[in-house]
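Agenda item 2: pyridoxal-5'-phosphate complex prediction
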Amino acid sequence: MAWTAHTIIQNGKAIPFDDARLHPLAVGLAYGASVFEGIRAYMNPATGRLSVFRLEEHLVRLDQGMKFMRFDDPPSREQLRQGVLDSVRANAPDDDCYIRLQVHIESLGNQSTTGKVGWVCAAIPRERSTKRSTGLSLNVSSWTRIADNTTPARIKATANYHAGRISTLQSKADGYDAPILLTRDGKVSESAGACLFMVRDGAVITPARDSDILESVTRDTVLKLAAELDLPTQERRADRSELYVADEVFLCGTGQELVPVASIDRLPVGDGKPGPITMRLQEAYESVVRGTTDAHAEWRTAV
Ligand SMILES: Cc1ncc(COP(=O)(O)O)c(C=O)c1O
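Presented output:
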């Protein structure tokens, strides 16, 4: 990752990266009135061309978030789609990039202020997980996942990340890579910035959408890839104790990509090595995001 970002798109205009501005008392910051997407663009090794992975699905989720936030006059999907492509093109990266698309309230105000709405889109370098081939060490956090009737988990709101942040900091302080969060009734939800899958008796299992998860684009991709590999899939409530008896566990998300889990609460997952189904899915994910397969061309938007 040799490249650096020098240009950012703010409210549709390309400006120097360091010149982007928001007042410290803006409601987007002061009350966390902000929604965002984390998106990745991947380089195809044969063509050297970048494509954005599942851009439309990210834009749809962002629309849902903006609606939920009751934003006044939010930017259109077309403006945001253009902003994503412009943010990548303007920086001419020679490698993969991570794209943060964020919509927030720019004005000063109070908790019920719903405008003026502004947005930024930044394409930046982002390292891949160093645990992609060895596996993560996770713990079940004593913090619980945010509940849907507190601060809706399926909206990618900046404010939701306070809960992810404190649980991650606690896990790291305790010597783990990341937490697993349970719902308030003790079922498995997800990690702080990624969804969770288990493999049991050959079935690929992930907590259902009513387990206070973010409705993850990568989770949907993995479910589809697993079905195409003829692996049975299940979206259902999952018990904490299943984590300890599962044959394989992995996390997935745009930022994390697809990373095996080697241990949970210091107990090895399976034999403590990344499992065969996890690694098959990781390989399938890698080829579909990078376009080294013709499958799912509809998921890749050329930059
Ligand atoms: C809390 C949380 N869960 C799950 C995910 C995975 O979502 P996606 O696959 O849409 O990136 C993310 C973001 O990457 C996240 O922040």
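Discussion summary: Residues 136-290 form a domain with the D-amino Acid Aminotransferase; Chain A, domain 2 fold (CATH 3.20.10.10).
Owner for follow-up: CH.
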